[in-house]
Amino acid sequence: MKKLFFPLLIATFILSGLSHYMHWGPITEFVISAIAIVFVAGFLGKATEAVAHYAGQRLGGFLNATFGNAAELIIAFFLIKEGMFDIVKASLTGSIIGNLLLVLGASALAGGLKFKEQKFNIHLAGQNASLMLLAVIALFIPAIFVKTEHIPEKDTLMLSLIVSGALILAYVGWLIYSMITHKDMLEDQEETQPAHGEEPAWSKGKAILYLVLATVMVGFVSEWLVHTLDTFTTKFGLSELFIGAFVVAIVGNAAEHSAAIMLARKNKMGAAVEIAVGSSLQIALFVAPVLVFVSMFFKDHMNLIFTTVELAAIGVAALIATSISRDGSTTWYEGKLLLIVYAILGVAFFFV
Amino acid sequence: MKKLFFPLLIATFILSGLSHYMHWGPITEFVISAIAIVFVAGFLGKATEAVAHYAGQRLGGFLNATFGNAAELIIAFFLIKEGMFDIVKASLTGSIIGNLLLVLGASALAGGLKFKEQKFNIHLAGQNASLMLLAVIALFIPAIFVKTEHIPEKDTLMLSLIVSGALILAYVGWLIYSMITHKDMLEDQEETQPAHGEEPAWSKGKAILYLVLATVMVGFVSEWLVHTLDTFTTKFGLSELFIGAFVVAIVGNAAEHSAAIMLARKNKMGAAVEIAVGSSLQIALFVAPVLVFVSMFFKDHMNLIFTTVELAAIGVAALIATSISRDGSTTWYEGKLLLIVYAILGVAFFFV
Amino acid sequence: MKKLFFPLLIATFILSGLSHYMHWGPITEFVISAIAIVFVAGFLGKATEAVAHYAGQRLGGFLNATFGNAAELIIAFFLIKEGMFDIVKASLTGSIIGNLLLVLGASALAGGLKFKEQKFNIHLAGQNASLMLLAVIALFIPAIFVKTEHIPEKDTLMLSLIVSGALILAYVGWLIYSMITHKDMLEDQEETQPAHGEEPAWSKGKAILYLVLATVMVGFVSEWLVHTLDTFTTKFGLSELFIGAFVVAIVGNAAEHSAAIMLARKNKMGAAVEIAVGSSLQIALFVAPVLVFVSMFFKDHMNLIFTTVELAAIGVAALIATSISRDGSTTWYEGKLLLIVYAILGVAFFFV
């Protein structure tokens, strides 16, 4: 697999470009660009990790944390450029619930079938739960206020900007807290070290070059993918909500999925949880608010008001993931529960 | 009391039959059949336990788990046959909140007045909390989606069937998990053993015969009881919601109530919690979804969409019961809190 | 500061009276009476503590608990007399979220910047969480039932009275539980003792005299303050909700704020939590229901139905405060999180 990565990366990237510029038809284009994005996102992930390695522990952790969802951020950027706010919000929703339910659930199930009980740092689990709650609150409060009190559009946008600012502040605080002031309290006892400690395959210069290259590639493929979505939804009659929340989100998070499951099978559940919960926290506390600010540079501005069903899905996913991970251990059955909730949400979104 | 059980069982059963066929008037019929159902449900419970004893630990546990709410299932069957879906859902709601608030609350209060603090397996409490949350989510999600997105009736039914299937899958997984793969982790340290270990009074053949007999008797009395509800509600002006959620639910769960309180007084709080929380989990994860499938055999089909007030009641009951039992111990005051929430819900349902 | 307290108390009280009777204009009157109420509320707090000291531990604890929010109770009394129910409910909401988010958050942040982790009794934290949940449930249930089922005004009032009675019952039970039957289980290991154990500066007779005097003074200043609110809101265009929830609530709880932060800086986080969480519990379980009963003596009766945004704010504050304090420890970042949620709510209320 490792040997084939680069050939496949380049092949799918070129094929995706060809299909886009030669108009092979929306479905073919969608399928090829969806496969390509998995590879370029994986490439971006590897390059980020390598650069992070050379940057030293602190700056490296920060790079990992902020570039971790770069693919989603770039896909969303092109969606915002096209004014497709509904799909943006649906895909943010999908990323959050996908990480909390599908990634965490599949990891706990895969790991739990091999090990009876998998433990991880209980302090981190508690902190994650509180942060997740903050994210849910920050998305719920403006929505409830706007929906029940009929706040005018201008004030809604201002409210969205302020709440977004508060979330980014919370995220920056979290980076300082978890990487500097309370680093020791939140670490697994040796478990997560190997995940970050591996010697990267590339030299420093190569790593930086690859990071730039990967970002550019993700940018191109994202734009090609986004262009197909419109026709794609009309052909299959699927709602934008379903496409955004399940198709775009699963494709955009494929790298996280495989990494977390592999770690769980090696009994490094702490690292798997960090990927799953950490990713969804990043999306809620960093990607979503940044996108609100980004949209200010375009003609149409995006607010932070999600639909009721999106909020319900996020709230429900946060609740059950928190309830299951709070005790600092998982079993196969808890993984299965998370997957069942994900399936229920998937079916419900499908019928909307 | 033990000596009088069989005479009273037979007497109330015959009286209930007589009142039904001789039309003694709806109120008399209701009162007599309500008393009779307490006895036949108790008989069914005893017979199930005896058969479970002979069936061996695993199959026995399964029998206990699935026959535990047989009385409710049978009552609900006759209500569905009559198309009284509102009362079915109200009585399911009532069973869930009755077990979580009234049974658990009365047990914790009764036990807590004798013992300062009563402890039980903290692992089981955590698992119960997550399962309860799954049940709440599975009932909330379709309701929120249907209510805010105006999903057509046909899709609502399909969504209900799929969610019901997912719940039954979760329930079967739970049986495998708690009885086979993680049995040791979830057991009390000796506490619950005696409850199951007592030698049954009846031989194997007699036990099976009694199980069949009890099921038939519950069937008859349930039908007689259901027939009176209609006139009964119109006479007293009580809403179907109140009748279903409080009258039917209290009558149908009388056996659990007395068993749990008796166990709590003997400081076997773990077993009392298992009855209370286990029963409500069974109703939400097994009885309710099975009834949705059962209704497919009749002309009118029942979906899984509960009313807003029913969902609020279930959500609230699950939250407070979980918050109180999560630490693996109860005190008299926690019991009182649960009873106060039950009273508040009762009053609120009464005013609807 | 201590030496200046009495001169400032008397000066601000007299100034406030002068500004009221000589009509210095609503804004001047508001500012002066807002400053004066901070001092008279502080005076009332000191007098209560002194009388509690002489009354012995049990009666003293009770006095402290019930007089602790006397200032809010008196302000609310005058608002009810004027029929300003919306401001009353907004200020109750503001007191609850102010204590749970602002007081607790500022304490945890102030303490956390000095100490890495501050621990307190985990039993008490769990009990507080369950009680807070009861309070939230008791406010949510009538609101949900009334809003979805269109219950007539007369029944709404009856439901409010019954729920209020249930809450007062729960509060009295809590006093018995925490001060008599389970006192030992809920105490910090020595931490909170000094807070209550200090020798009061006044003799018994003086303390009682001061308690009466302080109550009278709070009464006067409250009335003067309430009189200015009307004009004040119209001048600045702020909603009654914002005025009640933030201005009145912050002014009315100033004493608690400073006390809790000082305790946290002395590493007595247990006592700080008790002030913050205890105060909000008192408001929800005692002050709010008592006000419903009090309103029965006036022409217009106040029910217990809060608006959707108020309920959302209370629910959200209770959830995050519970999530953060449940593990029996706080850090600076958890304090920051609470303050961020408070800021988000403040902005949202401002835009209503």
From TrEMBL, chains A, B, C:
Domain Sodium/calcium exchanger membrane region: 30-178, 207-350
GO molecular function per UniProt: calcium:proton antiporter activity
One of the Pfam families matching this protein, by short name: Na_Ca_ex
NCBIfam families the UniProt entry points to: cax
PANTHER family, alphabetized: VACUOLAR CALCIUM ION TRANSPORTER
Residues passing through the membrane, by range: 29-47, 59-80, 92-113, 125-145, 157-177, 208-229, 241-263, 275-298, 304-321, 333-351
GO biological process: intracellular calcium ion homeostasis
Listed name of the protein: Ca(2+)/H(+) antiporter
CC annotations in GO: endomembrane system; membrane
Similarity comment: family membership: Belongs to the Ca(2+):cation antiporter (CaCA) (TC 2.A.19) family.
Annotated compartments: Endomembrane system
